[in-house]
Amino acid sequence: MCQLLAMNCNVPTDICFSFAGFQARGGATDVHADGWGIAFFEGRGTRVFLDPQPSCVSPVAALVRSYPIHSKNVIAHIRKATQGVVALENTHPFMRELWGRYWIFAHNGNLPDFSPQLDGSFTPVGETDSERAFCWLLQNLRQRFGSRAPTQASLFDALHQMTVELGARGACNYLLSNGDCLFAHCSNQLSYIIRQAPFSVAHLRDQDLSIDFSAVTTPDDRVAVIATVPLTDNERWITMPNGSLWLFEEGAAVRHQLTVAGPVKVPS
How many domains does the chain fold into? Predict the structure, then answer.
């Protein structure tokens, strides 16, 4: 099972602390050794770092860990290959342009026999079901809304409908962002935490490393961190219910909705 990590903030923030723990899961504290990647939004631009090496030994990961890039939206992925060989073109996250904005996508799960009909507007480069799903999502969004970007509410509703279909085909935990907000779908494993004042000390699970957030933040800062498995062992993470789509904006969970039928309790 791959590992996902995302950050959504109300002010540009670096992800160095969280990434230090996340990096260790790529071959050191866990078995995900088939490549890794991370994408940072900076205004309308993005910085994307990809490496098919395990993140625990990747010089590129060491650079990212020591380089405090400030961003309001970050998506990272550590791969355990299910479909597609270990190669750069199969390494998440993936990037495409839609409505004059870059979109970033990372997926954890398996969509067996998922071969949607694609019209050529978005074409996979690699062999993964994940990239095919990303192209299919963007294709459907363009077909539905045309050349003009929809409102955020309409975008969430459209993604919800498409995610219901994806979820019926297999495990589909994913992260998606256009730099303005962050969408997260929990198919079977995803958690999040909102850090805001009063800030405290956090300690990583995967490394003996702590940080006092009160010393590096302001009282107005708010940061949402989403991960497959909680990154710290002394904070209260919220487990997302299986089959739920979430919208994060300005460091807060602003909307969520179930993508499966049944009486599942969604935390408020």
Answer: 1
